[in-house]
Amino acid sequence: MRKDTKVLHTGVEFDERTGAVSVPIYQTSTFRQKSVGENYGYEYSRTGNPTREALEKAAAELEGGTRGLAFSSGLAAITTVLMLFRSGDHLLVSDDIYGGTFRVIDKVFKEFGLSVSFIDTSDPAAVEAGIKNNTRAIFIESPTNPLLKVTDIQAVAKIAGVHGLLVIVDNTFLTPYWQRPLELGADVVLHSATKYLGGHSDLVAGLVVVKDAKLGERLHFLQNATGNILGPFDSWLLMRGFKTLAVRMEKHEENARKLAPWLKTLPQVKRVFYPGLTEHPGHDIAKKQGTGFGGMISFELESPELALSLLKGLKIITLAESLGGVESLISLPAKMTHASIPPERRKEIGISDALVRISVGIENVEDLKEDIRLGLSK
Ligand code: PLP
To answer: Can you list the domains of the chain with their CATH numbers?
Structure first.
C-alpha cells in the first residue's frame, strides 16, 4: 500500500459491531464486567479505551512499530519516555530542541538525579565523544526546532548499538509521512501530535511508538501508573487528522519549497534555514533519510526590531505558538517557544532575537509572499 493510501486506511477501519467507518467515541470512564476478573476486553479508560486504542494502533502502523501510546500532550509523551530512566543515568540530548523539552529535562528530571549533556547530535563525532559509562540513551530532535538542524539517525543508531543505548527521536516536524525513524534504527519515536498529525490547531496530544514489545509494555505500565492519557474525543479528533495527513503534508512542503528560496531574495533577510535548500548543511542527510523536507522554515532578519514589526504587521500569517496547522503560523522563538532556554544558551546555539520561525500553511503561497512583503515594508 502506498503511503498516501496507508495514512487513511490504517488502524481500526470500521466499528466491528455496527460497521461505522468512523471509529466511535467511547466516552466512558469504566466498563461493565461479566463477573469479577472477567470483562469484555476493557476495565477502566485510564488503562485502555477502544477509541484511544484505535488511534494507538494507527500510530504504530504509520511509524512501523509494534506499539503506540497516546498521551494528553507531546510533553506528557516525552515525560513518560523520560520515566524509563532512573537517578544516576545519563542522557545525550540534541542541543537545539523545543524549549519545553529542554525545560522538563533541565528543571524537572535533573532534580530527580538524571544527568544530561546537550550536544550537537548532527555531529556523530560529538555523539561518540559524549558517551559516558552511565549513558543510557540519545534523545534526538531532527530536524530541530527552531534551527532545522538535521541528525543522521542511522549513524547515531549505529553508535548507540555499539554502546547498548536507546535512541529516541522526536519526529514532530516531519511525521511518518516524510520520515520513519524506527526504520532508520531508532527505538522510540515520539510526537507532539498537536502539530502536523492533528493538523488543525484544535487539539493538544502526544504519541509514542516503539519497536520492541517489552519496551511498549513498560511504557504502557508508566502511562497507566501516572495517568498520562489522551481522552476518547481527542483520540478521535487526532485520527481524523491522520486521514488528511498526506494531502496536507504535500501542500505544506510544496509551499515551503517555494517560500524558502524566495525569502533568500529579500534584502532584509540575512539567513534562511530550510533543509530543502541544497546549501543547508543537513540537506544530503535529510534527503537520504526521509522522503520530504517538511513545511518549517526559520529565517534571520536584519534586526530584532524588524522581526517584531514583521510579526505585528502580518495579516494572513498568524502570530502564534505551535506549528503544523493548515493555517500559516509565525513566531519569534527567542521570546516565545524557546523563552525557557536561558539567553546565553540561546546565543550559544544560534537562536537570536531576530530569528523568525514560520510554519508554512496550505494557503496559496503567493498570498503568503505578499503578506511577508507587506509586513516587512511597515
Ligand atoms: N516536540 C516538539 C518538536 C515541539 O515543537 C513541541 C511543542 O511545540 C513539543 C514536542 C511538545 O508538545 P506539546 O506542546 O504537544 O506538549
So the answer is: 3-243 (3.40.640.10), 246-377 (3.90.1150.10)
